[in-house]
Amino acid sequence: MNDPRAVGAQIRSRLPSLTPLEGKVAQEILARRDITTETPLKEIAEKSGVSEAMVVKVAKKLGFDGFRAFREGLIAYYTSESAALHTCITPEDTAGVIVQKVFRTAMQALEETFAILDLVAFERAADYLYRAKQRDFIGFGGSAQIARDVAHKFLRIGIRASVFDDAHMMMMSAALLGPDDAVLAFSHSGETAAVIEAVELARKNGARVIAVTNYSQSTLARAVDVVLCSTAENSPLLGENATARIAQLNLLDALFVEVAQKDRASADANLARTMRAVKSKRRT
């Protein structure tokens, strides 16, 4: 983890792989801002109410070589500009403070999502979507709204996708997919049962599947061909989902551009055609 901005994001993305106790310890340590290079393992363990061996175990499951690397990573993260962007909203905050905190939290999500982006996975996802004959974009709730936004962008350049936010429709379409098709599955938690079931069926039939999620170790992430991770620090009022949505929309905007670049001439021609088609609907 050479980029300090990626430390917090990497830790949060791996939380689902931890046991409830390990997750509690990880979140307690991540929430601390007083850790220094002099903070001993014993102190961390005592404040978390666990053994020193448990802290080391958690550090390794989070991707660090051991406690010292974990401690150094946290110190680098908390002194980064990215970590400083996030502060919780309080009942006493004025309108000006609220606007500042909401915008800065969104900026943090963008910075950290960019820091953890796997460019190899990103390019594979673009290739799968570009080459696919049929594209299914699936998700529920807020995730479905992101899927619709992305499908709209792709339609503008002549790349069609079907959006499903109904469990039965997802499964019916997945049953008809094959090796020439692709699925773009959205789930913030990566644990949405209906999405996972549709993804598993689609992959069984040979389709390529891309997941957009906040957790790299989630059930959905383990069930797909390519994982694109967004990240957001939890906020009691805003919630993790709301902030992550900003990062996901930007991530998918980049994916849209990458796909368009694969045949820029066709993309530009189709964009001009679709813009002309709706121009008559605008009042000038």
Automatic annotation (TrEMBL):
CDD domains found in the cross-reference section: SIS_RpiR
InterPro entries from the UniProt entry: Homeodomain-like_sf (IPR009057), HTH_RpiR (IPR000281), RpiR-like (IPR047640), RpiR-like_SIS (IPR035472), SIS_dom (IPR001347), SIS_dom_sf (IPR046348), WH-like_DNA-bd_sf (IPR036388)
This protein's UniProt keywords: DNA-binding, Transcription, Transcription regulation
Gene3D superfamilies: Glucose-6-phosphate isomerase like protein, domain 1, Winged helix-like DNA-binding domain superfamily/Winged helix DNA-binding domain
Limits of the SIS domain: 125-265
Pfam families recorded: HTH_6, SIS
NCBIfam families: PRK11337.1 (NF008458)
Domain of life assignment: Bacteria
Biological source species: Rhodobacter lacus
Organism lineage: Bacteria, Pseudomonadati, Pseudomonadota, Alphaproteobacteria, Rhodobacterales
TM ranges: none
Residues of the HTH rpiR-type domain: 5-81
Name this protein carries in UniProt: MurR/RpiR family transcriptional regulator
